[in-house]
Amino acid sequence: MDGWWMWATIIVLFALGVRLSAFFSGSEIGFYRISPLRLSIEADSGDRVAQWLLHFVHQPGYFVATTLVGNNVANYITTIAVTLATAAVFGASSGYLEILGTILVTPLIFVFGELIPKNLFYEAPHRLLRQYRPWFILFYWLFLPFSIPLVWLCKLFERFNRQEQNSAKTTLGRKRLVQVLTEGHEEGLLTQVQNELVQGLLHKAPQPVTDSMTKAARVLGVHEDQSAAATLDFARQHGCPLVPVRRSKSGSDWYGYVRVADIGLYDRPIRDITIPLLKVDATAGKLEAILAMRSAGLEYAAICKNDTVLGLATEGDLVEEFFISQQTVGR
After folding, report:
1. Predicted confidence band at 20 (pLDDT cuts at 50, 70, 90)?
2. What residue spans of 242-314 are helical by DSSP H?
3. pTM of the complete model
4. Any idea where the domains of the chain sit in the sequence?
5. CATH 3.40.50.720, domain 209-322, yes or no
6. Chain centroid offset of residue 121 CA
7. Euclidean distance between the first and final Cα of the chain, in Å?
8. Among 241, 186, 176, 220, which residue's Cα sits nearest to residue 312?
9. Residue 40 in 3-state DSSP?
10. Each residue of 93-120: b (16+ CB within 10 Å) or e?
Protein backbone atom coordinates (compact mmCIF):
# COMPACT_ATOMS: atom_id res chain seq x y z
CA MET A 1 0.00 0.00 0.00
CA ASP A 2 2.85 2.37 0.84
CA GLY A 3 4.41 1.71 -2.56
CA TRP A 4 1.09 2.36 -4.30
CA TRP A 5 0.59 5.65 -2.49
CA MET A 6 4.18 6.64 -3.19
CA TRP A 7 3.80 6.19 -6.95
CA ALA A 8 0.40 7.85 -6.96
CA THR A 9 1.94 10.87 -5.20
CA ILE A 10 4.85 10.94 -7.68
CA ILE A 11 2.53 10.82 -10.69
CA VAL A 12 0.23 13.51 -9.28
CA LEU A 13 3.15 15.82 -8.43
CA PHE A 14 4.79 15.31 -11.83
CA ALA A 15 1.54 15.92 -13.71
CA LEU A 16 0.83 19.00 -11.58
CA GLY A 17 4.31 20.40 -12.22
CA VAL A 18 4.06 19.86 -15.99
CA ARG A 19 0.55 21.34 -16.06
CA LEU A 20 1.60 24.43 -14.15
CA SER A 21 4.65 24.85 -16.38
CA ALA A 22 2.41 24.65 -19.45
CA PHE A 23 -0.02 27.16 -18.00
CA PHE A 24 2.52 29.81 -17.03
CA SER A 25 4.74 29.36 -20.11
CA GLY A 26 1.78 29.58 -22.43
CA SER A 27 0.27 32.56 -20.60
CA GLU A 28 3.51 34.50 -20.94
CA ILE A 29 3.61 33.97 -24.72
CA GLY A 30 -0.09 34.78 -25.00
CA PHE A 31 0.42 38.03 -23.08
CA TYR A 32 3.10 39.20 -25.52
CA ARG A 33 0.93 38.20 -28.48
CA ILE A 34 -2.31 39.84 -27.34
CA SER A 35 -3.61 42.85 -29.28
CA PRO A 36 -3.86 46.07 -27.20
CA LEU A 37 -6.07 47.63 -29.88
CA ARG A 38 -8.59 44.82 -29.69
CA LEU A 39 -8.49 44.87 -25.89
CA SER A 40 -9.10 48.64 -25.84
CA ILE A 41 -12.14 48.32 -28.10
CA GLU A 42 -13.57 45.43 -26.06
CA ALA A 43 -12.83 47.18 -22.76
CA ASP A 44 -14.62 50.35 -23.93
CA SER A 45 -17.66 48.24 -24.74
CA GLY A 46 -17.82 47.03 -21.12
CA ASP A 47 -16.04 43.68 -21.43
CA ARG A 48 -14.74 42.98 -17.91
CA VAL A 49 -12.26 40.33 -19.04
CA ALA A 50 -10.77 42.74 -21.58
CA GLN A 51 -10.56 45.43 -18.88
CA TRP A 52 -8.68 42.98 -16.65
CA LEU A 53 -6.23 42.08 -19.42
CA LEU A 54 -5.79 45.73 -20.37
CA HIS A 55 -4.86 46.49 -16.76
CA PHE A 56 -1.93 44.06 -17.05
CA VAL A 57 -0.97 45.52 -20.44
CA HIS A 58 -0.52 48.88 -18.72
CA GLN A 59 1.35 47.23 -15.83
CA PRO A 60 3.15 44.28 -17.43
CA GLY A 61 5.56 43.84 -14.52
CA TYR A 62 2.96 42.13 -12.33
CA PHE A 63 1.90 39.72 -15.08
CA VAL A 64 5.50 38.76 -15.89
CA ALA A 65 6.40 38.44 -12.19
CA THR A 66 3.44 36.10 -11.63
CA THR A 67 4.46 33.85 -14.52
CA LEU A 68 8.08 33.91 -13.33
CA VAL A 69 7.15 32.82 -9.81
CA GLY A 70 4.69 30.27 -11.21
CA ASN A 71 7.31 28.70 -13.47
CA ASN A 72 9.70 28.38 -10.54
CA VAL A 73 7.00 26.71 -8.44
CA ALA A 74 6.23 24.33 -11.31
CA ASN A 75 9.92 23.44 -11.68
CA TYR A 76 10.21 22.88 -7.93
CA ILE A 77 7.22 20.51 -7.89
CA THR A 78 8.60 18.59 -10.87
CA THR A 79 11.98 18.28 -9.16
CA ILE A 80 10.33 16.86 -6.03
CA ALA A 81 8.53 14.27 -8.17
CA VAL A 82 11.79 13.23 -9.87
CA THR A 83 13.55 12.98 -6.51
CA LEU A 84 10.80 10.79 -5.04
CA ALA A 85 10.78 8.59 -8.16
CA THR A 86 14.54 8.15 -7.94
CA ALA A 87 14.30 7.15 -4.29
CA ALA A 88 11.44 4.72 -5.05
CA VAL A 89 13.32 2.98 -7.89
CA PHE A 90 16.83 2.79 -6.39
CA GLY A 91 15.92 2.72 -2.72
CA ALA A 92 18.00 5.84 -2.08
CA SER A 93 18.51 9.25 -3.59
CA SER A 94 21.74 10.88 -4.64
CA GLY A 95 22.79 13.85 -6.71
CA TYR A 96 23.90 11.75 -9.67
CA LEU A 97 20.70 9.72 -9.75
CA GLU A 98 18.56 12.86 -9.56
CA ILE A 99 20.48 14.41 -12.45
CA LEU A 100 20.02 11.23 -14.47
CA GLY A 101 16.29 11.17 -13.70
CA THR A 102 15.95 14.84 -14.66
CA ILE A 103 17.71 14.21 -17.99
CA LEU A 104 15.34 11.31 -18.73
CA VAL A 105 12.16 13.31 -18.13
CA THR A 106 13.39 16.59 -19.70
CA PRO A 107 12.05 15.80 -23.22
CA LEU A 108 8.63 15.06 -21.75
CA ILE A 109 8.62 18.31 -19.75
CA PHE A 110 9.84 20.32 -22.72
CA VAL A 111 7.20 19.01 -25.14
CA PHE A 112 4.17 19.09 -22.83
CA GLY A 113 5.24 21.86 -20.46
CA GLU A 114 6.81 24.31 -22.92
CA LEU A 115 6.57 23.61 -26.64
CA ILE A 116 2.91 22.63 -27.11
CA PRO A 117 1.36 25.23 -24.73
CA LYS A 118 3.49 28.05 -26.14
CA ASN A 119 2.39 27.21 -29.67
CA LEU A 120 -1.26 27.03 -28.61
CA PHE A 121 -1.16 30.40 -26.83
CA TYR A 122 0.78 31.89 -29.74
CA GLU A 123 -1.98 30.93 -32.16
CA ALA A 124 -4.95 31.87 -29.94
CA PRO A 125 -3.83 34.31 -27.22
CA HIS A 126 -7.18 36.05 -26.70
CA ARG A 127 -9.28 32.92 -26.39
CA LEU A 128 -6.89 31.01 -24.12
CA LEU A 129 -6.15 33.96 -21.81
CA ARG A 130 -9.89 34.48 -21.44
CA GLN A 131 -10.44 30.79 -20.80
CA TYR A 132 -7.80 30.55 -18.06
CA ARG A 133 -8.44 33.97 -16.53
CA PRO A 134 -9.91 32.60 -13.23
CA TRP A 135 -6.85 30.42 -12.66
CA PHE A 136 -4.44 33.25 -13.40
CA ILE A 137 -6.29 35.57 -10.99
CA LEU A 138 -6.03 32.87 -8.30
CA PHE A 139 -2.26 32.48 -8.79
CA TYR A 140 -1.84 36.24 -9.09
CA TRP A 141 -3.18 36.76 -5.57
CA LEU A 142 -1.37 33.70 -4.20
CA PHE A 143 2.00 34.83 -5.58
CA LEU A 144 1.49 38.55 -4.94
CA PRO A 145 3.70 38.61 -1.79
CA PHE A 146 6.54 37.26 -3.94
CA SER A 147 5.71 39.27 -7.08
CA ILE A 148 5.69 42.70 -5.43
CA PRO A 149 9.38 42.58 -4.36
CA LEU A 150 10.35 41.54 -7.91
CA VAL A 151 8.41 44.45 -9.42
CA TRP A 152 9.89 46.90 -6.94
CA LEU A 153 13.38 45.59 -7.65
CA CYS A 154 12.87 46.09 -11.40
CA LYS A 155 11.65 49.63 -10.83
CA LEU A 156 14.68 50.32 -8.66
CA PHE A 157 17.03 49.23 -11.46
CA GLU A 158 15.07 51.32 -13.94
CA ARG A 159 15.86 54.46 -11.97
CA PHE A 160 19.58 53.86 -12.50
CA ASN A 161 19.09 53.07 -16.19
CA ARG A 162 16.69 55.82 -17.27
CA GLN A 163 18.30 56.61 -20.63
CA GLU A 164 18.31 53.01 -21.85
CA GLN A 165 14.77 52.60 -20.52
CA ASN A 166 13.50 55.53 -22.59
CA SER A 167 15.28 54.17 -25.67
CA ALA A 168 13.68 50.76 -25.15
CA LYS A 169 10.27 52.36 -24.68
CA THR A 170 10.70 54.26 -27.94
CA THR A 171 11.63 51.09 -29.82
CA LEU A 172 8.85 49.04 -28.29
CA GLY A 173 6.40 51.91 -28.76
CA ARG A 174 7.22 52.08 -32.46
CA LYS A 175 6.66 48.35 -32.87
CA ARG A 176 3.43 48.58 -30.89
CA LEU A 177 2.28 51.46 -33.12
CA VAL A 178 3.03 49.45 -36.25
CA GLN A 179 1.02 46.55 -34.82
CA VAL A 180 -1.91 48.86 -34.03
CA LEU A 181 -1.86 50.37 -37.52
CA THR A 182 -1.71 46.96 -39.17
CA GLU A 183 -4.64 45.71 -37.14
CA GLY A 184 -6.54 48.93 -37.80
CA HIS A 185 -6.09 48.44 -41.54
CA GLU A 186 -7.21 44.80 -41.31
CA GLU A 187 -10.33 45.86 -39.41
CA GLY A 188 -11.14 48.56 -41.97
CA LEU A 189 -10.32 51.51 -39.70
CA LEU A 190 -7.56 52.76 -42.02
CA THR A 191 -7.63 52.99 -45.81
CA GLN A 192 -4.77 51.58 -47.83
CA VAL A 193 -3.46 55.07 -48.63
CA GLN A 194 -3.54 56.12 -44.97
CA ASN A 195 -1.82 52.93 -43.92
CA GLU A 196 0.91 53.34 -46.52
CA LEU A 197 1.47 56.96 -45.49
CA VAL A 198 1.90 56.12 -41.81
CA GLN A 199 4.12 53.15 -42.60
CA GLY A 200 6.18 55.39 -44.86
CA LEU A 201 6.55 57.99 -42.12
CA LEU A 202 7.77 55.40 -39.64
CA HIS A 203 10.22 53.95 -42.13
CA LYS A 204 11.52 57.04 -43.95
CA ALA A 205 11.28 59.93 -41.48
CA PRO A 206 14.56 59.22 -39.61
CA GLN A 207 16.57 58.74 -42.81
CA PRO A 208 18.93 61.60 -43.80
CA VAL A 209 17.64 64.03 -46.42
CA THR A 210 20.87 63.53 -48.39
CA ASP A 211 19.50 60.15 -49.50
CA SER A 212 16.76 61.92 -51.47
CA MET A 213 18.55 64.97 -52.83
CA THR A 214 19.77 65.50 -56.37
CA LYS A 215 23.49 66.20 -56.29
CA ALA A 216 24.43 69.74 -57.26
CA ALA A 217 26.39 68.63 -60.33
CA ARG A 218 23.38 66.71 -61.67
CA VAL A 219 20.66 69.31 -61.09
CA LEU A 220 18.82 70.44 -64.26
CA GLY A 221 18.04 74.14 -64.26
CA VAL A 222 18.79 77.53 -65.79
CA HIS A 223 21.15 80.40 -64.99
CA GLU A 224 19.90 83.69 -63.65
CA ASP A 225 20.38 85.54 -66.98
CA GLN A 226 18.21 83.06 -68.91
CA SER A 227 15.34 84.63 -70.80
CA ALA A 228 11.75 83.97 -69.77
CA ALA A 229 10.96 82.25 -73.08
CA ALA A 230 13.96 79.95 -72.81
CA THR A 231 13.06 79.09 -69.22
CA LEU A 232 9.49 78.22 -70.27
CA ASP A 233 10.84 76.00 -73.03
CA PHE A 234 13.12 74.29 -70.52
CA ALA A 235 10.20 73.71 -68.13
CA ARG A 236 8.00 72.26 -70.90
CA GLN A 237 10.81 70.01 -72.11
CA HIS A 238 11.47 68.51 -68.67
CA GLY A 239 7.90 68.72 -67.34
CA CYS A 240 8.83 70.59 -64.16
CA PRO A 241 6.69 73.28 -62.48
CA LEU A 242 9.72 74.53 -60.52
CA VAL A 243 12.99 75.43 -62.20
CA PRO A 244 16.25 75.72 -60.20
CA VAL A 245 18.35 78.84 -60.83
CA ARG A 246 22.14 79.12 -60.57
CA ARG A 247 24.58 81.94 -60.74
CA SER A 248 25.36 83.04 -64.29
CA LYS A 249 29.08 82.33 -64.03
CA SER A 250 28.80 79.01 -62.19
CA GLY A 251 27.80 75.53 -63.23
CA SER A 252 26.53 74.34 -59.84
CA ASP A 253 26.05 77.41 -57.64
CA TRP A 254 22.32 76.94 -57.13
CA TYR A 255 20.78 79.67 -55.03
CA GLY A 256 17.08 79.83 -55.95
CA TYR A 257 14.20 78.63 -58.09
CA VAL A 258 11.34 80.06 -60.12
CA ARG A 259 7.77 78.90 -60.42
CA VAL A 260 6.70 78.39 -64.02
CA ALA A 261 3.37 80.04 -63.21
CA ASP A 262 5.21 83.18 -62.09
CA ILE A 263 7.06 83.45 -65.40
CA GLY A 264 3.81 83.86 -67.31
CA LEU A 265 2.19 85.94 -64.61
CA TYR A 266 4.97 88.50 -64.22
CA ASP A 267 6.66 90.01 -67.24
CA ARG A 268 9.96 90.38 -65.47
CA PRO A 269 13.51 88.94 -65.79
CA ILE A 270 14.19 85.55 -64.22
CA ARG A 271 16.60 87.11 -61.76
CA ASP A 272 13.82 89.31 -60.32
CA ILE A 273 11.31 86.52 -59.70
CA THR A 274 13.78 83.97 -58.35
CA ILE A 275 12.85 82.65 -54.89
CA PRO A 276 15.85 81.95 -52.61
CA LEU A 277 16.37 78.33 -51.69
CA LEU A 278 15.84 77.25 -48.11
CA LYS A 279 19.10 76.00 -46.63
CA VAL A 280 18.79 72.66 -44.81
CA ASP A 281 21.68 71.05 -43.00
CA ALA A 282 22.90 67.77 -44.49
CA THR A 283 22.41 65.99 -41.14
CA ALA A 284 18.66 66.71 -41.10
CA GLY A 285 16.14 63.91 -41.57
CA LYS A 286 13.62 63.77 -44.38
CA LEU A 287 10.63 64.66 -42.23
CA GLU A 288 12.61 67.49 -40.63
CA ALA A 289 13.37 68.90 -44.08
CA ILE A 290 9.70 68.75 -45.09
CA LEU A 291 8.63 70.56 -41.92
CA ALA A 292 11.27 73.24 -42.49
CA MET A 293 10.04 73.85 -46.04
CA ARG A 294 6.43 73.93 -44.89
CA SER A 295 7.25 76.45 -42.16
CA ALA A 296 9.10 78.67 -44.63
CA GLY A 297 6.44 78.29 -47.33
CA LEU A 298 9.03 77.08 -49.86
CA GLU A 299 8.98 74.09 -52.19
CA TYR A 300 12.74 73.78 -52.82
CA ALA A 301 15.66 73.40 -50.42
CA ALA A 302 19.41 73.43 -50.76
CA ILE A 303 21.08 70.67 -48.76
CA CYS A 304 24.20 72.25 -47.33
CA LYS A 305 27.28 71.26 -45.41
CA ASN A 306 29.39 74.12 -44.04
CA ASP A 307 27.70 76.59 -46.45
CA THR A 308 28.50 74.32 -49.40
CA VAL A 309 25.50 73.23 -51.48
CA LEU A 310 25.63 69.44 -51.82
CA GLY A 311 22.35 69.10 -53.71
CA LEU A 312 18.71 70.10 -53.98
CA ALA A 313 15.50 68.50 -52.72
CA THR A 314 11.87 69.34 -53.32
CA GLU A 315 9.04 69.02 -50.85
CA GLY A 316 6.94 67.11 -53.38
CA ASP A 317 9.59 64.44 -53.95
CA LEU A 318 10.12 63.97 -50.22
CA VAL A 319 6.39 63.67 -49.52
CA GLU A 320 6.00 61.17 -52.34
CA GLU A 321 8.57 58.90 -50.71
CA PHE A 322 6.34 58.47 -47.67
CA PHE A 323 3.62 56.88 -49.80
CA ILE A 324 5.30 53.50 -50.03
CA SER A 325 3.71 50.07 -49.81
CA GLN A 326 4.02 47.87 -46.75
CA GLN A 327 5.80 45.29 -48.89
CA THR A 328 8.55 47.81 -49.55
CA VAL A 329 8.83 48.55 -45.82
CA GLY A 330 9.24 44.88 -44.99
CA ARG A 331 12.07 44.31 -47.44
Report:
1. very high
2. 260-265, 270-273, 286-296
3. 0.50
4. 2-160, 209-322
5. no
6. 21
7. 66
8. 220
9. helix
10. beeebbeebeeebeeebeeebbeebbeb
